[in-house]
Each structure stands twice: as structure tokens, then as C-alpha cells.
Automatic annotation (TrEMBL):
GO terms for cellular component: membrane. Keywords: Membrane, Transmembrane, Transmembrane helix. One of its GO terms (biological process) is proteolysis. The keyword Transmembrane applies. This is Signal peptidase II. Residues 223-235 have a biased composition (Low complexity). One of its GO terms (molecular function) is aspartic-type endopeptidase activity. Belongs to the peptidase A8 family. Residues 236-246 have a biased composition (Polar residues). Residues 223-246 are annotated as: Disordered.
Amino acid sequence: MSKEVDGTKIKTKKTWKDYKQNFKKRLLNVKQHTIKRWKENKKKIIIRYAVFLSIFLITYFLDQFTKFHFYPGEAAYEAYENGNIVQVYQGAFLGIRLVPHHGVTIIPFKTNAVIIIVQIISVISILTFTILIFYIDSFLWVSIIAMLVSGTAGNMTDRFLWNGYVKDILFWTYFEKVFKRDLGTFNVADVLIIVSIIISVVYLVISIFVEYFKEEKQKIDNPNNQNDINNNDQIVSTNNQHNTVS
């Protein structure tokens, strides 16, 4: 027994010209889809961008206002370099202290090259997410992206204005007392980024479970359809086995 090879089904190796043509076709398809979407959903797209810009501007202003309000020019930086942290307010749960942070928290390297790379990535991310709003129908995702873009833009603005430094002002007074150690300092922009990520993850997890339970409910409500699917799978499997043997 041997498996026959159909010579007509041998794939030819694609050339650079083929890849170039495929790329042009995809660009053309995207262009046509974009034009069609704009014509069919012009008002909805404008409303979504209005919501996006409103959330972005409000949260961005809140972030920048808190930073400029509490930071007394260069004084906080000079104090921090001398080993002193300027503490403005200490509440029962949340406090305000001025801690200029150079670079990005999750990146251990604090060189100027890293700052430049982070800024470039931030600009690209902001532009990408802003364009993405055009293709999104959910106002929830529009809100999530607006908060994420606002937080990214807020910290990016700090790095541009303060030689790579980000103005951190908030800290957890309650948790630092409980754990008896410094838990770091953050700002409104950080909160926006973290909250947007958490909401995204929670929403995706819930969506997966909802879809799963919907499918299970359909199987219970329509057992005959499931049996038909199983029978079809068995027929296909049997045919494949016969073809292999022949």
C-alpha cells in the first residue's frame, strides 16, 4: 500500500514579486474597507471619536493638573537628588509625596537611550490606538483605549518636559503602614494605564466564559444538532482513512 502523490498540488515557492503583489492587494482591501466603513458609519465613528477625545482630554488634564499643582518647579528634583523626599499630604489611605522617577518602572535600565526608545514606542502606541478607534464599535473598548492613551501620553509628556523624568505624586499610606515598607510612588497616568489593562483582562475573561456557556446551552437545547455534527465528523474521519489506505 502506498500513498499516491498528486504532482499538480505541489506548492511553488513564492517570489519577492508575489509577496509584493499580495501586500498591495491587502493594502487595497484595507483602503476599500476603510472607505466603505466611513460611508456606512460616518455618524457613529464621529460619536466614538468624540467620546474618545472627551475621556482622553479629561483624564489627561487631571493627570497634568495634579503634577503641575503639587510640583514646585525644580525644587522637588533638587531635594530628591539630595536624598530628601518632599511629602505634601498624608491621609489615612492615600498620600502625596514628590518623587521624580527617571525612566520606566518595569525597565531596570535608566539610560537616555532607553528613554528615547520608550518615547518612540509611546508615540507609536498612541497613534496606533487612536487609529484603531475607527474600526471599533464597542464604546467600552473606546473608553478603555482612551484611558490607556491618556496615561501613556501623560507620562510621555513628563519625559519630554523634565529630561526623562516622570512626576510621581501618590502613595499608599495605609498599605505602607501595614507592610512597614515603601511600596512605591505613582501618578494619575499610572492609575489610568493599570485600570485600563485590568478592565480589558476582566472583560476578555468574562467574554470567554459567556461564549463557553452559550455554546454549552446550545448543545443542551439542541442535542440533535450536536449528534449531526458528531456523525459528520465520523463520516469525514472514515473517508480520510479510506483515502489513506487506497
